Amino acid sequence: MKVSNVSCQASVSRMHMVFGGTFKKVYEFLSTFITSGMRFLLNQQICPVLYHAGMVLLNSLLDTVPVRSSVDELVGIDYSLLKDPVVSTSNLDMEFRGAFFPLAEGNWSLLNQAVEPQLQEEERMVYVAFSEFFFDSAMESYFRAGALQLSLVGDKVPHDLDMLLRATYFGSIVLLSPAVIDSPLKLELQAMVPPRCTIKPSGTTISVTASVTIALVPPNQPEVQLSSMIMDARFNAKMTLRGKALRTHLDLRKFRIYSNQSALESLALIPLQTPLKAMLQVGVMPMLNQRTWRGVQIPLPEGINFVREVVKNHAGFLTIGADLHFAKGLREVINKNRPANARDPQASSAPPSSTAAVAAPPPP
Questions:
Q1: Residue 13 near residue 357 (C-beta atoms within 8 A)
Q2: Where does residue 295 fall: left (phi above 0), alpha (psi -120 to 50 degrees), or beta otherwise?
Q3: What does the mean pLDDT of the chain come to?
Q4: In degrees, to the nearest 5, what angle opens at C-alpha 213 toward C-alphas 166 and 144?
Q5: Which parts of the sequence are annotated with region: Disordered (predicted)?
Q6: Is pLDDT of 89 > 80?
Q7: Quick one: three-class SS letters along the chain?
Q8: Is 184 in contact with 211 (CB distance < 8 Å)?
Q9: How many whole angstroms from its chain centre is CA 182?
């Protein structure tokens, strides 16, 4: 993110000076020459100073904004501007892309079919809107990166669940060879399609459809599949903003397993509903929340954080309002990041001042 051009048209069109002291009459006699000289000097200074502030100082601050960066070892995020900022008397509106992408597919992008967020609140200094596209692109990216799968083998499978699964598939297990019967049990969950986010005024939900595979894994032999089923899960998602990080906490809301082979097999899976749900809540949810609670960084310059956050859900998007806290002084951040050879506002790269009139207010 960079300011690439600054246009300036400014000059002092009128100046009034009041003199006092012993030589008051002399200064008043020479006031025309003095004010003309000072106006000339000021006119030469205005645009170079503004140019330096925009092209050097402001860009030094914007250089600290993470526009395109990695979230973790699998996924990155793109906050590039979609169009020029819109400036009004009371607001500065900026439209960011806000899209995740797999690091292995840097040019991949998800088609944005979400509703366009609308911001109307004004109680806080800053409002950020996140559409369903923001969260869908994150889950699609992790899906494409192969992260939405979990495999539990042997001791990783909870003991009670291991016993229940062996009892459920006892009829299939006893028909196997003795070398396979006592083999470690494997439970594998894998998302079949990218999860989807739904944002409503009542809350935010994440819907996941995954395959559940149960198998025996004998040493040095191919695994023996006992069953394969489909899992539908729905999670409540609570969004919070801490500092610069947007964080998510997930709670399992609904859970259902069924067979894609026959209705009769689906009935046989009913006893597994409760223990598998408990396994998700105890074994899987903490791992998911550990990852989502790390959060993703919101593009803010260095030294600025969000405080007093307020989250509000709408149809298709959510908004987060916050005030800004300057953990560091702007001068400190600018001096730290600006080039060493760009200290002089009178640099030769500054454009000349122009002659458009900007009237200075008269003195009281």
A1: yes
A2: left
A3: 80
A4: 155
A5: 337-364
A6: no
A7: CCCCCCCCCCCECCCCCCCCCCCHHHHHHCHHHHHHHHHHHHHHHHHHHHHHHHHHHHHHHHCCCCCEEECCCCEEEECCECCCCEECCCCEECCECCEEEEHHHCCCCCCCCCCCCCCCCCCCCEEEEEEHHHHHHHHHHHHHCCCCEEEEEHHHCCHHHHHHHHHHCHHHHCCCCHHHHCCCEEEEEEECCCCEEEEECCEEEEEEEEEEEEEECCCCCCCEEEEEEEEEEEEEEEEEEEECEEEEEEEEEEEEEECCCCHHHHHHCHHHHHHHHHHHHHHHHHHHHHHHCCCEECCCCCCEEEEEEEEEECCCEEEEEEEEEECCCHHHHHHHHCCCCCCCCCCCCCCCCCCCCECCCCCC
A8: no
A9: 47
Q: Is residue 357 scored above 50 in pLDDT?
A: no
Confidence of residue 347 (pLDDT cuts 50, 70, 90): very low
Q: Please check whether residue 235 lies inside any domain of the structure.
A: no
CA distance to 11, 41, 70, 172, per residue, from 106 (Å) = 48, 52, 11, 46
Q: What pLDDT shows up at residue 2?
A: 57
CB 229 within 8 A of CB 269: yes
* Stated length of the chain: 364
Contacts of 242 (CB under 8 A, 6+ apart): 295, 306, 309
Q: Tell me how many domains the chain contains.
A: 1
Report how far apart, in Å, the C-alpha atoms of 74 and of each of 189, 245, 254, 298 are.
Answer: 19, 18, 28, 18
pLDDT tens readout for residues 92-124: 788 888 899 999 987 788 888 888 888 888 888
Q: Each residue of 224-279: pLDDT tens digit?
A: 888 888 999 999 999 998 888 899 999 999 999 888 777 777 887 888 888 888 88
d(CA 135, CA 114): 11
Contact assessment for residue 138 and residue 148, using Cβ atoms and an 8 Å cutoff: no
Q: Could you tell me if residue 6 is inside a domain?
A: yes
Q: What is the residue range of 364's domain?
A: 1-63+335-364
Residue 50 within any structural domain of the chain? yes
Which residue shows structure tokens 């559409």? 131
53 assigned to some structural domain: yes
